SDR family NAD(P)-dependent oxidoreductase
Amino acid sequence: MNTSKRQGKALITGASTGIGATYADRLAARGYDLVLVARDAARLEQVAATLRGKHGVQVEVLPADLTSKPELLKVEQRLRGDADISLLLNNAGMAVQGKLIDADIDRYEAMIQLNVVSVTRLAAAAAANFGKRGSGAIINVASVLALAPEMFNGTYSGTKAYVLNLTQSMQQELGPLGVKVQAVLPGATRTEIWERSGGSVDQLPPEMLMEADDMVDAALAGFDQGEAITIPSLPDVADWNALTSARHALGPNLSRNRPAARYLDHAG
């Protein structure tokens, strides 16, 4: 049964393929009307046509390159002004292969613009809209590399660590206002991001690679269960809870009025 009037609209970035297109299918099945955002208007139209026929929901195509300030502002203004939008999926992102020492710094800057700046501006716009209303949901797609900076390009993992930190702060700020905020940390997932970054998904061991359908279904199960952080491949959530507890245990000692004794012992 179509329940779109109850669900409202979901605005999805990076919606033309992979994780974003899969989320679009799943959210349409749940009765959300959709606003699909990506650079490739032709591919967006194909996704939209399929979803309209399959689920009977309204699907709007909103082409935008989120690394372009004017086009980003177009999407941001839509999030601030459309009272029917009830869910933001901040999914658009890119990766860059290689080491910082020999990097194409312009590609790194574009990655930071997409993975950090656009995510922040769109999250802020949705937060303002949803916070005033006292309802709504924001899902930010990060990566397990937010927790493992030694495993890959540090700039990419740094952008995803930013998304994780931003989301955790948003949870504290928006939870009391009735807005649900989730961070999703996928591991390696079969999407086009590998080829676009200059790598190949075939280089990965098969046991490390998850299909996009499985990843999104797990992430939405975590959303339904009220998880603040969802790591689809993590077998035991106790491991995440232990990491969180260890981080919180550092809290009382992270800022004190004197240096630690080990530094005083070596003072000249």
